[in-house]
Design goal:
Layout (H helix, E strand, L loop, with lengths): L7 E5 L3 H9 L4 E5 L14 H13 L3 E6 L5 H16 L4 E4 L2 H10 L4 E4 L8 H10 L3 E3 L6 H11 L2 E8 L11 H6 L16 E4 L6 E5 L6 E3 L4 H6 L4 E4 L6 H19 L6 H5 L9 E2 L22 E11 L2 E6 L3 E2 L4 E4 L5 E3 L13 E2 L4 E5 L9 E5 L1
Parallel strand pairs: 1-2, 1-11, 2-3, 3-4, 4-5, 5-6, 6-7, 7-11, 10-12
Antiparallel strand pairs: 7-10, 8-9, 13-14, 13-20, 14-19, 15-18, 16-17, 16-20
Helix pairs in contact: 1-9, 3-4, 5-6
The structure holds iron/sulfur cluster (SF4).
Iron/sulfur cluster binds next to helix 7.
């Protein structure tokens, strides 16, 4: 039986602007990192003030904010961590996502008001582990990436607990992201937010005796996860939260992926047919080649050995920062020319061709440079945080 409440669309947000983009395009919930402790130091991340702003917005709009605190902590981290958790509780976030039992002990001792979600980093792949955490007070489990949708359904039923699963985006090559490649290659601790993505690098192997090249390529470079064609399975099998990866990705990536998944989830909930044409647009955003990885079975053929760089078919240009009547101010991120193939993506997943751009005084622009502004005339259903993109 489909239950609308069983289909949360959970989006990444690397900063405050991306959080508003995600909500604007239909995310039910977002996951974010605070100033520390969230496994994505390069993601921009939120100050406590910004977390307070987005939490207030979420409460008012019946949305949810989860804060990622899933490092493996050392003794020296614990005191600071407790102060940080106090602050998170005071700004009324919905939940923390943790992985370290030590952190969990602090959370439980302090009796915070936020929910406790167990991170994928904790590698839960069976129902007994799920029951174990539930007994201790965890309300949701983000399963290990190695779990299939069928296995997730069993775990959810047998442990009677909410399940969150990744259905889109980049994945780690290591077991549920517990990885040391970055530590060894760049002295950056992946389990404390410092990953430099060494698994995506080019590796050359040669015979040490005579120097003969043996291998030149990308033996550790996983393709990205694509769950869009299994969306009905996720929903019918009662997976509570459907999670998109990508806190370091652009506003356009968030807008595009969230609006496509939103549209598809709503279509399924209304028992209507999905439009293949709409779903295929997911492949236009940046990716390393897609695969369903473990969602159905084994993750075979999921390493992308070849070195050809994937060219995304669409490119982020800018975001609507202000609207007055039928005119919008665009904050330009990547420059463009008037003759480019430029579109506005509105929150209901519609695209509008934009042919004319203006400056402050209404004079048509030939081109717009990065980090400037431009003005456009907009259709009625446009809102703040809608994005502009170029089709290549
Ligand atoms: S190096 Fe690759 S596999 Fe390891 S943590 Fe970073 S992204 Fe994941």
């Amino acid at each position: 039986m489909i239950n609308k409440n069983n289909s949360e669309l959970l989006a990444p947000a690397g900063n405050l602007e991306k959080a508003f983009v995600a909500f604007n395009y239909g995310a039910d919930a977002i996951y974010i990192g605070g100033p520390n402790w969230g496994l994505r130091k390069a993601a921009g991340n939120f100050t406590i003030k910004e977390i307070e702003i987005i939490s207030k917005y979420a409460i008012k709009n019946n949305k949810r904010v989860y804060v990622v605190t899933n490092i493996y902590a050392y003794d020296e981290d614990l005191e600071e961590f407790e102060k940080y958790l106090d602050l998170l509780d005071s700004v009324k976030i919905s939940a923390v996502i943790f992985s370290d039992p030590g952190i969990f002990t602090i959370i439980n001792t302090k009796k915070y008001k936020f929910e406790k979600h167990l991170s994928t980093q904790a590698s839960t792949v069976n129902y007994e582990t799920a029951k174990f955490w539930k007994k201790l007070g965890v309300s949701r489990i983000v399963l290990g990436r190695e779990t299939s949708i069928d296995e997730a359904q069993e775990i959810s039923k047998k442990a009677n607990i909410e399940i969150e699963m990744f259905l889109h985006g980049a994945v780690c090559m290591s077991f549920s992201g517990k990885c040391m490649i970055s530590n060894f290659t760049a002295n950056r601790d992946a389990n404390r937010g410092g990953c430099v993505q060494s698994c995506r690098w080019n590796y050359k192997v040669s015979d040490t005796l005579n120097g003969t090249p043996l291998f030149d390529g990308y033996p550790l470079n996983s393709r990205d996860l694509l769950g869009i064609n299994l969306l009905e399975d996720f929903i019918y099998k009662g997976i509570k939260s459907l999670k998109i990866e990508g806190r370091m990705k652009s506003n356009f990536y968030i807008a595009r992926t969230v609006s496509i998944y939103r549209d598809a989830i709503d279509t399924i909930l209304k028992c209507k047919d999905l439009s293949k044409e709409k779903l295929q647009k997911i492949e236009n955003v940046s990716n390393r080649g897609f695969n369903e990885l473990f969602l159905k079975s084994e993750a075979k053929n999921s390493v992308r050995l070849d070195s050809t760089k994937y060219q995304s078919k669409e490119e982020y240009l800018g975001i609507i920062e202000e609207i007055e009547k039928n005119t919008a101010l665009i904050k330009v991120k990547n420059g463009f020319n008037n003759s480019d193939n430029i579109y506005l993506l509105t929150s209901d997943n519609s695209e509008y061709k934009i042919n004319k751009f203006y400056d402050y005084s209404g004079i048509p622009l030939e081109k717009a440079n990065p980090n400037t502004v431009a003005f456009i005339t907009i259709p009625q259903n446009t809102t703040k945080y809608n994005v502009l993109f170029r089709k290549k």
